[in-house]
Amino acid sequence: MPSEITPDVVRHLASLARIGLTDQEVQRLTGELGVIVESVAKVTEVATPDVPATSHPIPLGTVMRPDEVGLTLTNEQALSGAPDAQDGQFKVSSILGEEQ
Amino acid sequence: MSAASSDLTRLAAHELAEKLRAGEISSVEATRAHLDRIAAVDGDVHAFLHLNTSALETAAEIDARRAAGEELAPLAGVPVAIKDVLCTRDMPSTAGSRILEGWIPPYDATVVARMREAGLVPLGKTNMDEFAMGSSTEHSAFGPTRNPWDRERIPGGSGGGSAAAVAAFEAPLALGSDTGGSIRQPAAVTGSVGMKPTYGGVSRYGAIALASSLDQVGPVTRTVLDAALLHDVIGGHDPRDSTSIPDAWPSFADAARTGLREGVVKGLRIGVVSELGGGTTGGTTGGTTGGTAGGAAGASQGFQPGVLQRFHEALGLLEKQGAELVEVSAPSFEYAISAYYLILPAEASSNLAKFDSVRFGLRTEVPGGTIEDVMAATREAGFGDEVKRRIILGTYALSAGYYDAYYGSAQKVRTLIQRDFDAAFGACDVLATPSAPTTAFKLGEKLDDPLAMYLNDLTTIPANLAGVPGIALPSGLAPEDGLPAGIQFMAPARQDARLYTVAAALEALFVDAWGGPLLAQAPALA
What we know:
heterodimer, A: mainly alpha, Histone, subunit A, 3 helices, 33% helix, flat, B: alpha/beta, Amidase signature (AS) enzymes, eleven-stranded mixed β-sheet, 18 helices, 11 strands, globular
């Protein structure tokens, strides 16, 4: 039922997904997601306990490759698209909220 | 000596390849003709996001190698457009998103590397719905693509740019990706040919992932043979994709050529799905509208009458050639869209977590903020509405307390859909449906109604959920609006070659009936 999706649920989900939302977006998404969830909940009608789940379309086992050193990206290439880098490493803001 | 450049853009890829091989034209001429065409019409169509500034140099290198007597691959020297979801080391790869604006990957997708190796000439990157989420290309952060048949209408999506590029004669070949129909539905509404290969048949390495268990890269072209030729180039095992099927594949080009043989469809059993435009009971031979009236209850629901009419006429043509129509039922297909819109957002919410402002793409600084503040601000600024909607939906479907009810149930539906396919393929060789329920709708028409937009994928999603191949080709113009309609064939997993044979056979019948390809009837753009 759409009542499952409240503005607080949307805010919580957005924080889990690390997406900032304006209040206006929260309101709009609450309505839209309620309608979508109500519609897709149809899957529960036929998903009976005796039906096994399929996670992947083609049955394939775990694929291993020989443990050999191959061509990989250089440090420079790996950092080439980074918004910020220093000393050959990705540079980010403080992680634990301490002073920078 | 050389043909006028406008003529070169009208040629199919296999015709261009023939002229290149014979030395009648050069790759530089072919490439320049398409760049000129892009310059002339892409302001209106907006199929391209970026152009390859070294296309003519690449073409000249191919010409030089050919002149030196080197044995080149069949499509060497033929230009190609590349969906912007595929990584290219010399062009931005944005997947239609602000969050990746200007990003140039340090490597090529395997399919791109294989095309370069085969001597194809990249023209540029094509527009798409952001991260391939959409059926209209209106969700691109860089503005919509327009349908060459009517520029007030959508070109389909998510690969509207690739389909519009080939339909507008800006490129003879294009690459797309298909998670729920993003190759086939744009092909349908632009009068092009689009093939979603068997899952695992074409490498996904370097394809920016949307839903990893559904995504598949494939060709978008103007003829079935061209799609097969391009599939031959990009397909086959890739050790860099652990879901890549290690088996050898037959030549798809040979399979397409087989379709031109007399009597090739004689005895072919074509399954018509009651739930997807079916209703053949009572026969369709010679009939044009009987299929819709005679359909099972609900069979025509959501389908435009003219689309169904062209679909049943196509079946009638094949029946006249000796194909046998078999009515099959796939009761679980009714649940496919619901299952898809749980599985896709769930996988996408995980896949798109990598856009975190650390390794690539946008970073929105938050003075004094933590890394999490920066991530939230970056993703707020960098993602569009549809992407936010689906990530949050996926996060919900995967969250504690709802996982079993939603994601778990959707995975069970996936099993039921596979069983429906297995049962159907016990009774027929290929399945046929309309490629999309309607012709191209107007820009903006469904933008504010996500559920209505999702229904566009009604006919294409089952193949992705089951991993089977599907090909879409034009079936004519719908009488009520004069816009392209399409027919889709699906085959069991790994039977891609069968689809090329059947599609090529039907295409040849259509070309005879229409006096040429459908796109010859498209209005002039410039």
